[in-house]
Amino acid sequence: MRPSGSEPLNLTGQLLVAHPNLRDPNFRKAVLFLSAHDREEGAHGLVLNRPTNKSLTDFLPDHELDALGQIPVYVGGPVGAHELTIVSFDWIAGEAKITFHSQLSLDQAQTLAGSGGSRLIRAFVGYAGWAGGQLESELQQSAWIVQPATEAILGDSSNNGIRLRLMKNLGPAFYLLAIAPDDPSLN
Predict the structure, then answer these.
(1) What is the residue-wise DSSP string for the chain?
(2) Burial call 37-47: b when 16+ CB within 10 Å, e when fewer
(3) Which of 32, 67, 106, 172 has the fewest Cβ atoms within 10 Å of its own Cβ atom?
(4) What is the pLDDT of residues 37-52, one digit of tens each?
(5) Share of the chain above pLDDT 70, in %
(6) Is the pTM for the entire model greater than 0.90?
(7) Cα separations (Å) of 68 from 36, 37, 179?
């Protein structure tokens, strides 16, 4: 989290973790990778922990996909729910940062997948988007917790494992909120 009263930084390449009290069903318990962020232009992100339990082959059955066919597809967010995007996350160890390439063609994705390195190829249906100043407002309302993206987090393909690990790292109070049932009366 950033200190209150400070100017927001450019959060491109960071993670947004939905605060346990965020009830918006589009983002409840979500972990997003922010692929673009600008105070004036807005922000763009992809939900990392909502797998469709399908692979790229299920979405593109008429294409020869080779190794790409097994790439998992995630629900990236509520906007553009009929758009399929293939992305590449590249971990740069010496700089401890992630680079991100989106809107990859199948040929580009095939080339990147075969080039080795610390690269992760994923596909997303939809994305999350914010108008200029909207994300900053949500951050001031403590709807999101900003965390650094790491190779281990991006490589975690489990649905809830990413979020629980991040919440546990924030301390016991956040972890207890994270594992609490949505409706405590059902506990």
Answers:
(1) -PPTTSPPPP-TTEEEEE-TT---TTTTT-EEEEEEEETTTEEEEEESS-EEEEEHHHH-TTS--GGGGG-EEEE--SEEEEEEEEEEEEEEGGGTEEEEE-S--HHHHHHHHTT-SSEEEEEEEEEEEE-TTHHHHHHHTT-EEEEE--HHHHH---TTHHHHHHHHHH-HHHHHHHHS-SSGGG-
(2) beeeebbbbbb
(3) 172
(4) 999 999 999 999 999 9
(5) 89
(6) no
(7) 25, 29, 34
Distance CA 17, CA 29 (A): 8
Place of tokens 């009830």: 23
Round to whole Å and give the CA distance between 119 and 99: 9
Give the domains, in start order, of the chain with CATH numbers: 14-186 (3.40.1740.10)
- Pairwise CA distance, residues 13 & 35, whole Å: 6
Q: For 98-113, what is the mean pLDDT? A: 86
Specify the amino acid at residue 14: Q
Average pLDDT value for the chain: 86
Count the residues in the chain.
187
Q: Which amino acid is at 81?
A: A
